[in-house]
Design brief:
The complex is a heterodimer of chains A (522) and B (717). A 6-stranded mixed sheet of chain A has the order 1-2-6-3-5-4, with helices on both faces. In chain A, strands 7-11-8-10-9 form a 5-stranded mixed sheet, with helices on both faces. Chain A is an alpha+beta fold and 522 residues long. Chain A has 20 helices and 11 strands. Chain B has 717 residues and is of the alpha+beta class. Chain B folds into 4 domains: 33 residues; 202 residues, 2-Layer Sandwich (Cytochrome Bc1 Complex, Chain A, domain 1), CATH 3.30.830.10; 199 residues, Cytochrome Bc1 Complex, Chain A, domain 1; 217 residues, Clam (outer membrane lipoprotein receptor (LolB), chain A). Chain B is built from 20 helices and 24 strands. The chains are: A alpha+beta (522), B alpha+beta (717). The interface between A and B is large, with 112 and 99 residues.
Chain lengths: 522, 717
């Protein structure tokens, strides 16, 4: 052994034994919380709308973020995808914004509805429908739609972009819909005016063209994307009762048949102020924000908070599997049912997720990616498919390396879980997971958008934004025994749903066809 | 305490507010329609300026303090990219960028590095892109003194261990295998090749062969050549004191020596010429086509027309741009539609526009996008459109300064390309001065729809209108090459050397006469198949061969699943399989046939083969082997035979079976009668061990005729 090698080895031993300086976790969280507490102002309007203002006076900009406590989980069969459709419509303006002539447009839109209802009624006759009449009604509908479109302008989007809006967008998840934009702070009142009006008096203009846009979105995300196809098969298999099993973007037939009236009903039920949270992060004065909030959002009429979803997914009694034969390369998703985000073991699952796949020391990375080279990517995910308001799934998925079959990934992943179930995890692994949880939180606090998203999410699902920091204390309480316990409870075969893509080779497909032909002839 | 003046102002405001309230009988603050709001000016804002220092080894550093969160982050930009890798080793930059971090350093091995960083919740990540390399570090303030030396070590002394290089290469190959899974990935890749040519450094991409060609020494050389302090710019932001941090950096990088004569090679300018062409790449499993159209660009960012081009892009793109408004919102043809004329710092960019639209509207969607391009050329934008485009850019200008990271990152970019550090302000002033005629002028000058390449990836059977409506269609073959090049053209020299070596091989094993005298063999086999993910499955088998063209194989399956019988008699064949076995009989027969063609006994006994010498290669066990390419009449494709360079004994046979490369290693040679034959075979498919066979061979035994009868036991035919 050369002197140099000895030195390196000594250095390594020393490095491993050196305790990394860490202040007691409790103290740090309180410190982090204290730093933020004095910068956070929260208030609730008389109509129930909650505001969280997080001051950051770094630059004269702010992120404005509306969290609507509604998502695809609130849909029923026949209108799947409607929460997402409404999100698209919320950019179309109001009776005073986005039109060249509000009254004339209103009349034209009613004509569109009438024409569409006629067409729909004929289509409902199914096989008995008269093709000539359908063609005639389609033409009438198209004419009415084009006539109404003459009045519409992209004024809502333009008003934000013209005034320096950046990152303008919205998204719909299973449990929430959010709307966001960042603006220079001198446009604060502009945002209050536009955003409050959007939820006070929306006009769902260009509805039927936007349905086509959403259909294209579905083709892009789901139908023409192997991973999208697999995901849809996965969650429809994993849930048989709870609406988490429905695709958030909606079934194609629903996208192509829901009406403007149905979207408006959906809006009235779910977009009332008690069901909204607004988070503003940036260079804003909370007193001014409060005055503006009362002036603008105070206009929204009070409403009842909609009932939560009452359907409960029954315990799964047998393993469920779905395999799709694809031209694309193999992917495996396995999921196990678990409690909601407010379940007392939530922090334990978070620690488990990190031990399994956070970083290069994690178990899945070390064994499945690095040593056995089974997968290009192997990931655990505590919380699927939604923002996890309701009981959901713990996920493990693998994107396989060339030439590796799905079984290889399953075997390795289950082996790791069995090992944890039998032998537990080490204290080092638990400690590392806790350190990483804290570091990740600090990194998320760096951007205005990150702040707005985190604060509103915690306010919505736990009822208190400061849970964002105290949750680190919960993580700190997690022990190695806890992790072993939940693994034993959760990761049983009968609680598991597995979906995979198996690569079909064009050759074997041809051969099979030949065989089938031969059989048919024989 | 409030001053008297302030109190007076307050009282006055209350008074007027009340007066308004009484007059209007409305709330104290009235709502305004958005257009009526009196927008205050943007508050004065001192843009944080980074400090710039140069370390004694020549490394440029930008630092900017931000005490808000207990976090220190930094990023090194190194002047190296895929542009600098040799054409036959495409992927070298990517693999080097990956293993720089994953491989650990000469002082701290990979596992120790991972453990130390993650115990601190710290991150170091590296990558090398087309034109530059990045190494990023993020640490909580309390651990920065531990993390910074590791960051410096990764930059200066990467270990590039073989195992992590192999891992990165395996992953690169998996990306190749996956590159046709998504229509968007096909269209992006192939479009670049159409624009720049398949060999251009801006379009070429990895193949199995280019990844296989990458060796450890390549990574070491690549790093040594480009990772230099005077080819590196460092940006640092977060919770620190700039002066103290500069000193820490000086110490951390003290051992890194500049190479004074180094000059970063400039980025070559691609050819701007383009000819109109319509291209199609088939993809059956989609309901939506992905379409790109465009041509190479002509100007870099420092061209005076860049400002007008910037405004033109705003008119075309974004939420309020023409593509979104007309093609998406009015026509409902797409969710995703986009386009821009790009420019780079050191070379021109490209003009591209694209749409993802249902198969049926592939041509309509393409035409709708093209129409918007034509309209930009036909007339100047309206004053209103121009104003919207300029306002959008100018009013969001402040977002260029809202995080320290982007301020530092921009400075690094300008310094890297030798641009003035206030370049962004020049763009702002330039954009302010652009008028509608400028936009029209650059649209006419730089957008060339008649020179565009148009590429559609999708399911041609469902296209509503034929793609040929756009012009003559060239169909692209996007099949992924297996990575095995055809043998080079044979020369007299390589042929005679090949025959010579082949004769030596035959001699080494007993001579051609001895092999030609073998009429039959009977082999008892123990087959061990490797099950992916671990474990193996054992089977016993018997094989009978009556040369030249008859054989029978019997294999008993494990677990009482029954047995497989295959008989081949010249062109006739049959396979008898248990019904439960989900295997295609013709596939099995095919395998046996190709195996018979490569049977060592028949090969060594024949005199009608063309043998070509391909050269030497290092074998799996580190020994040198001569490689022969053998073709024989009636056998499709070439078979490669590897001979030990010293003993001339064959050590393996290699051939393609569909897209898979099969390599059979011959081991444990044994004397049987007058010849030497292997008693063990190991089969590798694409480099992975898939099985081994122990052989017990007898030669010239009497084989009863019924063995070769084409008759199945169950009579299922």
């Amino acid at each position: 052994m050369s002197a140099r090698t000895i030195l390196v080895v000594f250095f390594l031993i020393l490095a491993c034994m050196l305790p990394v300086y860490m202040a007691p976790a409790q103290e740090q969280e309180q410190d982090l919380l204290a730093r933020f507490e004095e910068r956070v102002t929260e208030f609730t309007l008389d109509n129930g709308l909650r505001f969280i203002v997080i001051e950051r006076h770094d630059a004269p900009v702010a992120t404005f973020y509306t969290y609507a406590d509604v998502g695809s989980v609130d849909e029923v069969k026949g209108i799947t995808g409607l929460a997402h459709m409404f999100e698209h419509m919320a950019f179309k303006g109001t009776s005073a914004i986005g039109t060249t002539d509000s009254a004339a447009e209103q009349a034209a839109l009613e004509q569109v509805d009438v024409a569409y209802e006629r067409l729909r009624a004929e289509r409902h006759k199914g096989l008995h429908a008269d093709p000539d009449k359908i063609a005639e009604l389609e033409a009438a509908f198209a004419e009415a739609r084009d006539a109404a479109q003459e009045y519409s302008t992209p004024e809502f989007e333009e008003a934000l972009e013209r005034n320096g809006g950046t990152g303008l967008n919205a998204s719909t998840a299973n449990d929430r819909t959010d709307y966001f934009v960042s603006l220079p702070v001198n446009q604060t009142e502009l945002w209050f005016s536009l955003e409050s009006e959007r939820f006070l008096d929306p006009v769902l203009r260009e509805f039927y063209v936007e349905r086509d846009v959403v259909a294209e979105e579905r083709r892009m995300r789901t139908e023409s994307n192997p991973f999208g196809r697999l995901l849809e098969e996965f969650w429809t298999t994993a849930f048989k009762a709870h609406p988490y099993g429905e695709p958030g973007i909606g079934h194609m037939s629903d996208i192509q048949s829901y009406t403007r009236a149905e979207a408006m009903d959906f809006f009235h039920k779910y977009y009332n102020p008690a069901n909204l949270i607004v988070a503003i992060a940036g260079d804003v004065d909370p007193d001014e924000a409060r005055a503006l909030a009362e002036t603008y959002f105070g206009r929204l009429p009070e409403g009842d908070r909609p009932d939560p979803v009452e359907t409960v997914e029954p315990p799964q009694i047998a393993e469920r599997r779905v395999t799709i034969e694809e031209q694309s390369q193999p992917i495996v998703i396995a999921g196990w049912h678990k409690g909601s985000v407010n379940h007392p073991d939530q922090a334990v699952y978070d620690v488990l997720e990190r031990i399994l796949s956070d970083g290069r020391t994690s178990r899945l990375y070390r064994e499945v990616v690095e040593e056995k080279q089974i997968a290009l990517q192997a990931q655990a995910l505590n919380g699927f498919p939604g923002m996890n308001k309701y009981p959901h799934l713990f996920l493990i998925y693998g994107v396989l390396n060339q030439g590796q079959p799905p079984e290889a990934f399953e075997e390795a992943a289950y082996g790791i879980l069995e090992d944890i179930g039998e032998h537990g995890v080490t204290e080092d692994e638990v400690a590392r997971a806790k350190t990483q949880a804290r570091a990740q939180l600090v990194r998320q606090l760096q951007s205005n958008t990150g702040l707005a998203v985190l604060f509103s999410y915690h306010e919505a699902v736990t009822g208190d934004w400061s849970d964002l920091f105290t949750y680190l204390d919960e993580i700190d309480q997690v022990s190695a025994e806890d992790v072993q316990r939940v693994v034993g409870e959760t990761f049983t075969k009968s609680n598991r749903t597995v979906a995979s893509i198996r690569t079909e080779t064009p050759d074997t497909e041809e051969d099979m066809e030949e065989n089938m032909d031969a059989e048919a002839e024989g | 305490m409030q001053s008297f003046a302030a109190m007076t102002r307050y009282a006055f405001r209350m008074l007027t507010a009340c007066a308004v309230a009484v007059l209007c009988a409305a709330p104290a603050f009235a709502q305004s329609h958005y257009a009526d709001i009196d927008t205050p000016p943007l508050p004065e804002f001192d843009i944080p300026e980074p400090e710039q220092v140069t370390l004694s080894n020549g490394m440029t550093v930008f630092l900017i303090e931000n005490p808000e969160l207990p976090l220190v982050e930094m990023s090194a930009r190194v002047g190296v990219g895929a542009l600098n890798e040799p054409a036959d080793k495409v992927g070298l930059a990517s693999v080097a960028g990956e293993v720089l971090r994953t491989g650990g350093t000469e002082n701290v091995d990979a596992d120790a590095l991972n453990l130390r960083l993650e115990n601190m919740g710290a991150q170091i990540e590296s990558s090398i892109g087309t034109v530059s390399g990045q190494v990023f570090m993020s640490s909580l303030t309390e651990t920065v003194d531990e993390v910074l030396p590791l960051f410096a070590d990764v930059l200066m002394h990467p270990a590039f261990p073989e195992d992590k290089i192999d891992l990165a290469k395996t992953q690169e190959k998996s990306f190749i295998a996956r590159r046709n899974d998504q229509a968007m990935s096909i269209v992006n890749r192939e479009f670049s090749k159409l624009l720049y040519g398949a060999d251009s450094p801006y379009a070429r991409h990895t193949e199995y062969a280019t990844i296989d060609a990458i060796e450890r020494q390549d990574l070491i050389d690549f790093h040594a050549r480009y990772f230099l302090p005077n080819n590196t710019i460092l940006g640092v932001w977060g919770d620190f004191d700039a002066e103290a941090m500069a000193e820490k950096l000086e110490n951390a990088f003290a051992a890194w020596e500049a190479q004074e004569d180094f000059v970063r090679p400039p980025q070559p300018a691609p050819d701007a010429n383009s000819e109109y062409g319509v291209y199609y790449a088939p993809k059956e499993d989609v309901t939506q086509s992905a379409i790109l159209m465009g041509h190479p660009g002509e100007i870099a960012m420092n061209h005076p027309d860049y400002f007008a081009v910037t405004v033109m892009n705003q008119v075309l793109s974004g939420f309020t741009g023409r593509l979104f408004q007309n093609v998406r919102d009015d026509k409902g043809l797409a969710y995703s539609v986009f386009g821009a004329y790009t420019a780079n710092f050191e070379r021109p960019g490209q003009f591209y526009a694209g749409i993802m639209t249902k198969s049926e509207s592939t041509v309509d969607g393409t035409e709708a996008v093209r129409e918007e391009i034509e309209k930009l050329r036909a007339a100047p934008p309206s004053e209103e459109e121009l104003q919207l485009a300029k306002d959008n850019y100018l009013n969001s200008f402040v977002f260029n300064f809202d995080t320290r990271q982007e301020i530092v990152s921009r400075m690094m970019t300008y310094a890297y390309y030798d641009y003035p550090l206030d370049f962004l302000n020049q763009v702002r002033e330039g954009v302010q001065a652009v008028d509608a005629n400028d936009v029209h002028r650059v649209a006419e000058k730089y957008l060339r729809p008649d020179d565009m390449k148009i590429l559609a990836v999708g399911n041609g059977a469902d296209f509503g209108r034929p793609l040929a409506d756009l012009g003559e269609v060239h169909t692209l073959d996007v099949t992924i090459p297996t990575g095995r090049e055809p043998a080079p053209e044979a020369t007299e020299e390589t042929l005679s050397e090949g025959q010579d070596l082949f004769r030596k091989a035959v001699e080494a094993l007993g001579g051609q006469e001895a092999f030609a005298a073998i009429r039959t063999i009977r082999q008892a086999m123990t087959i061990a198949n490797v099950i992916p993910g671990g474990g193996q499955m054992e089977m016993d088998a018997m094989q009978y061969v009556a040369y030249p063209d008859r054989m029978r194989a019997e294999m008993s399956l494990p677990g009482g699943m029954g047995s497989i019988v295959v008989v081949i008699d010249g062109d006739e064949s049959m396979a008898d399989l248990p019904d439960a076995l989900p295997i295609d009989p013709s596939e099995i027969i095919e395998q046996y046939k190709s195996q018979m063609d490569r049977d060592i006994i028949s090969m060594l006994g024949r005199g009608d083969m063309v043998v070509q010498y391909l050269g030497q290669e290092e074998n799996y066990d580190g020994r040198t082997a001569d490689v022969l390419s053998i073709t024989s009449p009636g056998v499709a494709g070439a078979t490669e035979m590897l001979l030990d360079a010293e003993t001339h004994e064959p050590v393996g046979v290699r051939y393609d079976q569909g897209p898979v490369q099969v390599f059979v290693v011959m081991a444990e040679m044994q004397q049987i009668g007058d010849v030497r034959l292997p008693s063990r075979l190991e089969t590798y498919m694409d480099g992975n061990l898939t099985g081994s066979v122990e052989l017990d061979t007898e030669i010239n035994v009497e084989l009863p005729e019924h063995l070769f009868e084409l008759k199945t036991s169950g009579g299922s035919f």
